[in-house]
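Quick check before the chapter quiz. The format below is the same one you will see on the exam, so make sure you can read both the input and the output lines.
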Amino acid sequence: MRMLSPPHPGAFVRTEVIEPQGLTVAAAAEVLGVSRPALSTFLNGRSGLSGMMALRIEKAFGVRMDTLMRMQSSYDIARTRGREDELDIEPYRAGAGPGSTGTGT
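Here is the expected output.
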């Protein structure tokens, strides 16, 4: 069962990886080989987790990139699901679509 509102993976990385190590964002960025603004943007949930950032976190801190990418996917799915009312799309039925003659040909 999916969480209704899963946390952004940046919050997890901040509270469960970086803060317990006693690192500042600048120091963690240096460890990861990224800019401080790029890491800060991710940690504050203003950007998504890229595969490369997930791999950097795995190599530096041992958190599996698979886990981090699943967290990002769950977060993205929940946010997108929350917007489904914005779409006015009916389920497709063969032979009933636009331009259909209803004969299946």
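If your answer matched, good. The first helix runs from residue 9 to 18.
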